[in-house]
């Protein structure tokens, strides 16, 4: 209870206040905020925060921990992908309510992109809500045409000419089609519930956000109009020649990821100053809700090797050292960059009327490089399809209609009968996959992976029960594979990445959560909470009804403890 309306106290009241517990005293002093800044540091673990604060007591993160409320027992939703991770934070709901399982998934009720005859179309299609939607996925401006983007300097000069609406960057030909209307389904229309941005807009407030793909149009919510200023330069775009080799994107070297993230930091600073992302004046002032995500920590955790930012001639190991307990040099560089950026944001906002919330869409697994087991998921699903075809020669299509596998396995089957589902489950549990790993120096090692790299499989009704949906849900996977710690599905020709997210490992889901600023006292909580609770908390901090969020009503999502009125 930290944000009761501030009021002047009588002398007697002041005397009584002195006798209250620290928490109660904080509650008496707190008040509603005018602005909330939400920052997601993708990949950040609670253990990263604790280590960094302990070793960097003068850091911004340490100041936020000391001066605000920190939550040490926080979980992000499963699947621990970026899309459901952010959607949870801005709706208050898990995939069972939001309908968002991944940024790349399968929908049994929609028609394939490009469908024009919706009366005779066959439902069932991949839903690609990532860079594939862009007008030009290879361009940092997503093909919008902001001007020259052939150098780092030109990107900085022109990228802020991107429009305030992400859907202007989306190629409609890449969108799935709704058979009932024969209209394409933009990401915002795919979301089943409203967002904090839409609630704020309904109360006449201004909103803004910055993220990594045009597909983050999804946070506009079903209305399509939740975010006034949505700045989304494409992270998976080709680098200009002065930043790297041909064919690489901003995720392949952490120095470039930091450059990319700095573009979004500039947008946030402009919003804090009451301007638009392009620097133009804004009569609405600073948004009531705004923020961004950082990718720098995430890529630092994934990369086997990377250049160090600011040291172009120095290449170092990504990931962690000492059995995953200490950030390696690339992760350390990323953490320091994020901390410095948060320092700039913290300095730009007014702590008297603004609350800063820092969390993460997801973590990353494994932390310990020695546990890494890279498996070619295409080989696994291919072997499953071959086995099914051998058993059912009359079958006209592969058993696996679609799969998405990072450090977990989600399969949608073309045959959803109980025998087919049992066949898939039994095959995967009995299949031994070829795998590679990494030694301490980053060199490739060879290993094998029993049970397809999985420790548990939820199939059919078990998968629906695990998510919390019924048989009629057209989006839920038929097979949910919970990976053995260290399993990452990727190419086995070389070590492309040493960690991933999307699964159910503790390191995937145990993320930090800090709340600092207007009306927020000092404290900590070890109570188990979820990142879904960020959404109702944002509205409560602004003095808006949290039950105006549909997911909050359906799931009973509560405001974070220590912050309830």
Number of helices: 18
The level-1 CATH class of the largest domain: Alpha Beta
Alpha carbon gap, first and last residue? 5 Å
CATH architectural category of the largest domain = 3-Layer(aba) Sandwich
CATH domain topology of the largest domain: Alkaline Phosphatase, subunit A
What is the global morphology? globular
The mean pLDDT is: 93
Q: What would you call the structural class?
A: alpha/beta
Helix amount: 25-40%
Unreliable spans are 1-30
Oligomer: single chain
Instruction: Tell me the count of domains.
Output: 3
Could you tell me the number of beta strands? 25
Short structural description:
This protein has 565 residues and is α/β, with parallel strands linked by helices. The chain has 18 helices and 25 strands.
Structure notes:
- By secondary structure, the chain is an alpha/beta fold.
- It folds into three domains: 1-30, no CATH class; 35-94 and 189-364 and 517-555, Alkaline Phosphatase, subunit A; 370-489, no CATH class.
- Strands 1, 2, 9, 14, 23, 24 and 25 form a seven-stranded mixed sheet that branches. Strands 19-18-15-22 form a four-stranded mixed sheet. Strands 16-17-21-20 form a four-stranded antiparallel sheet.
- β16 (400-405) and β17 form a beta hairpin.
- The model is unreliable at 1-30 (pLDDT under 50).
